[in-house]
Design a protein that fits this description.
13 helices, single chain, Nucleotidyltransferase, domain 5, about 40% helix, alpha/beta
Length: about 350
């Protein structure tokens, strides 16, 4: 399976294969995302996907594409037990009833939240045995975007087998990379994207909260560029490689992000009366040691970088194998999308 994470500045792609009980990472690619003003055209997407698959040198025609965190809705709702196709139809016709907003021309998918945290199981006696509702995880996006993604893949000679919300993919990647932590602990996954960052709080394997913060790596780089009066490219290099030289400037830029993330953690802890014990970060900006340190101070929770390829067999070229440790935080969403499809 080829998975493509269509980023705001950099597109990240991976080629994964199922091998026995595990998965192999056969190749990855990072390349500049196409420039467009409002909507990525089908023709531009097709040409971009052709370039991606050429770099990956993958023979499969199956591709999983991710929908950005600002373009896909991911939310828990309670609905009566019914087949998934009926749930999708009801959401299409009555989105305001369950999602508190009108979402015309959207497509939806849903998954029953089959996992219950241990304390929910222990309190099951308090729940009426005749309960007529169940907890459902809903994902939705504009139909035009989904159709364009499928058409762009076809024009590139590919089959869009899965279209995955970008907010879901890191959760799936983390489940494979850190299965013990995923199943037993309460943690937060923070992915620092180009324009936005997302935070997903997992409670014993259940996605409890997902939020999007409109602050990403671009704001950090642009801020450093303005403060230091240097080019954007120079600021990006300093942010990741020499952040100690501009720690004070970087801290002032990171404080708003830290406050927004902390607010999401506070909300979860207040609602569930359970602390978040660890924050795991991914994304290009998370590779900076000082970004981790500053966010740790702001969040007052231990923060660490994690590797989405930790449990993958590496079937890479020698050049890519030497690069994977540095690159892996940027591949989180692409790896998660591939695992979703496989």
């Amino acid at each position: 399976m080829v998975a493509v994470d269509l980023g705001g500045r950099i597109t990240k792609a991976v080629h994964l294969q199922r091998r026995g009980d595990g998965f192999a990472l056969c190749s990855f690619a990072l390349l500049d995302a196409p420039l467009f003003e409002k909507t990525l055209s089908v023709e531009m997407l097709a040409e971009h996907l052709k370039a991606v698959t050429q770099l990956l040198e993958a023979k499969t025609k199956l591709v999983a594409l991710t929908v950005g965190v600002n373009d896909a809705l991911v939310r828990h709702v309670e609905m009566p037990p019914m087949p998934a196709d009926e749930m999708r139809s009801i959401l299409k016709l009555n989105s305001r009833v369950y999602l508190q907003q009108d979402l015309p021309n959207h497509v939806f998918d849903c998954d029953t939240a089959s996992f219950q945290p241990s304390d929910a199981k222990n309190n099951s006696a308090k729940t009426s045995p005749g309960s007529t509702k169940q907890k459902i995880l809903i994902a939705g996006s504009k139909r035009q975007m989904v159709d364009d993604y499928a058409a762009g893949a076809r024009a590139a000679g590919l089959i869009a087998d899965y279209i995955v919300p970008g907010a879901i993919a890191p959760v799936n990647a983390f489940e494979l990379a850190q299965p013990e932590v995923f199943a037993k602990e309460t943690i937060a996954l923070v992915d620092i994207g180009f324009k936005s960052s997302s935070i997903s709080i997992l409670r014993e394997g259940e996605l409890a909260i997902n939020r999007v913060v409109s602050i990403g790596g671009d704001r950090l780089t642009t801020g450093l560029s303005e403060v230091l009066n240097i080019s954007y490219a120079e600021a990006e290099g300093i942010k990741v490689g020499m952040a100690h030289e501009v720690e004070s400037a970087l801290e002032s830029l990171l404080v708003p992000l830290g406050r927004e993330l902390r607010a999401s953690i506070d909300f979860f802890e207040h609602q569930h009366d359970r602390p978040v014990g660890q924050v795991y970060l991914s994304g290009g900006s998370a590779r900076s040691e000082y970004v981790l340190q500053i966010l740790q101070r702001e969040l007052a929770v231990d923060c660490k970088l994690w590797n989405p390829a930790a449990k993958l067999h590496l079937a890479l070229s020698p050049k890519q194998e030497a690069e994977i440790e540095h690159i892996s935080p940027q591949l989180t969403t692409a790896v998660g999308a591939a695992l979703t499809a496989l």
